[in-house]
Amino acid sequence: xxxxxxxxxxxxxxxxxxxxxxxxxxxxxxxxxxxxxxxxxxxxxxxxxxxxxxxxxxxxxxxxxxxxxxxxxxxxxxxxxxxxxxxxxxxxxxxxxxxxxxxxxxxxxxxxxxxxxxxxxxxxxxxxxxxxxxxxxxxxxxxxxxxxxxxxxxxxxxxxxxxxxxxxxxxxxxxxxxxxxxxxxxxxxxxxxxxxxxxxxxxxxxxxxxxxxxxxxxxxxxxxxxxxxxxxxxxxxxxxxxxxxxxxxxxxxxxxxxxxxxxxxxxxxxxxxxxxxxxxxxxxxxxxxxxxxxxxxxxxxxxxxxxxxxxxxxxxxxxxxxxxxxxxxxxxxxxxxxxxxxxxxxxxxxxxxxxxxxxxxxxxxxxxxxxxxxxxxxxxxxxxxxxxxxxxxxxxxxxxxxxxxxxxxxxxxxxxxxxxxxxxxxxxxxxxxxxxxxxxxxxxxxxxxxxxxxxxxxxxxxxxxxxxxxxxxxxxxxxxxxxxxxxxxx
Amino acid sequence: xxxxxxxxxxxxxxxxxxxxxxxxxxxxxxxxxxxxxxxxxxxxxxxxxxxxxxxxxxxxxxxxxxxxxxxxxxxxxxxxxxxxxxxxxxxxxxxxxxxxxxxxxxxxxxxxxxxxxxxxxxxxxxxxxxxxxxxxxxxxxxxxxxxxxxxxxxxxxxxxxxxxxxxxxxxxxxxxxxxxxxxxxxxxxxxxxxxxxxxxxxxxxxxxxxxxxxxxxxxxxxxxxxxxxxxxxxx
Lengths: 490, 235
Known about the structure:
The complex is a heterodimer of chains A (490) and B (235).
Chain A (H helix, E strand, L loop, with lengths): L11 H5 L8 H7 L10 H15 L6 E4 L3 E4 L11 H14 L12 H10 L10 H5 L11 H9 L5 H6 L5 H5 L1 H10 L16 E11 L2 H22 L1 E12 L4 E12 L2 H14 L10 E13 L9 H20 L4 E6 L9 E5 L10 E2 L12 E14 L5 E6 L2 E15 L3 E3 L5 E3 L5 H9 L4 E9 L4 E7 L5 E6 L2
Antiparallel strand pairs in A: 1-2, 3-6, 4-5, 4-6, 7-8, 10-11, 10-17, 11-12, 12-15, 13-14, 15-16, 16-17
Chain B lengths: L17 H7 L8 E7 L5 H11 L4 E6 H7 L1 E2 L1 H6 L7 E6 L2 H12 L6 E7 L7 H14 L2 E7 L10 E7 L13 E9 L5 E8 L4 E4 L19 E2 L2
Parallel strand pairs in B: 1-6, 1-7, 2-4, 2-5, 5-6
Antiparallel strand pairs in B: 7-8, 8-9, 9-10
Helix pairs in contact in B: 5-6
């Protein structure tokens, strides 16, 4: 409250000495001396929790955050890989304790049941269906409900979850609310709420664990190759290909590195997978650091889609298309997919938006490009468009007309031929914070209306040729005086 | 004439200008490095037009740095269409550094299914040296993809290019009502397998080919292009 410092967290000894979370710090200091006080940093705690979550990926990809101090691991179907549930619980607990954390864990059939047990009866492994009896002896605090409900329950003389459960179908529901009842049911193992895993579950994955962590480039490459071959085999059998591959490197000391490779078409060739992964690794700004070694390396196919058998053909054109696709993939992996672009046609008056640059790996289907000139006429649109129209100084002009002499980028130009105006009304444009006009995709109806009511910018475009043969695209904004250079013709 | 270091013989691609094609021995030779030194804003279009001729129906990769984009503007697919090119075959690669641009260029030239690579570099970066030039020439020679190197604000240096052009814009004739098609004063200043020349070259956007530029010019024989129902003519 106010600006008083309160206790945010404390250790076991402090708790035993009577300190509690939320206690004013002054009181705590008075009660216990000496007292070591560290400033809390919730942001850092959050980041740490996320790191731990990532690290737990080695046990199961279905890890969810339970802030501020908790995690859920959905180990359905995974426990046998670790020698059974008891062994898995031991291993998770031991490994995290070894990293310096105090861990309390439990295994149960539903999330909130496991949560309650972890906090109040840690180490419990609940046999299937026995959730209700496992939580019955737990105190009310294990319900983790709000104070109002807690008081109501205490007032009713209830002391354990079991007692509350006995009254489940009675007046409880009305007094405590449907939310409370749902939570209670989950704790009792009667229902489950869906968890949101931190990462989407990949479609396919192959992994290799190393009792002796691997450090060398060769070992890592050999592992990636073996994993790529495993995935390739499965993809082959399923008739699918990967569009997004992620290689995950788990360091023995907890750090997790991920590198991703996107491809333009479903990929299942192990050699190509390996080549793209190695290219991505080589292109990393900070090279992969194995530290004391990786004890788990995993290859995930995050997006695997069906490969249409028709696309695998011996047709020469098809082969050419695929080879170009692979070239584009290689360039995209090396330089970033926003740097390897194709153009997509847009039906718009706005010159800058008539062709949108998009990653070449993405498929936008057949394109319809609209010619602006008439047959036999010279070009109506310039080969290059300046990223931002630049003002020109008009030195001489026809009265009320276009420039005859102007200066642009410190050079004086004498206009000999000029044609225009081509009037382009920019009604679909809006200015963004960089003062650039962009097409208005994704606008709400209200925004559309607001803009329709504002005066629309209109540009009058002229194409001009100078004495020396330079060919420019100029415009004047109808509402403002001033001429601009927008494009350069060949 | 020594054949050492020259690309394998492949059928030349006619540019459309009778004298230029004659001196070139039929036209632009694919699978080779051709350099264009452009003086001025519009002259650089010459390189793009060579690339359009060289690429034919195959993909055209345009490689430049962010620097060139800031200086000369973005490549406009509409502009390419107006010139008779096909925006669908254009792939643009933007890199940060010259080394990256060269690496991309070599990667692209290694693929035989590429029609043409247009590498646009302003100034005189150190990495664009004789060694780099030779790598580009060799890559093009092996795959058959053509490499057009566009230089602006640069002086010619030793290179292994098969041809080198120095180009400025040429003004349209005063009485020309249809002014505006690209027109160039083009000098062929280096030609490893033939003579040099100086040509006034006009581009025919309708047929995507060069033609001789003089009064009462006869239109060049139209290049055969398959009918393309997806190009609509705006009214």
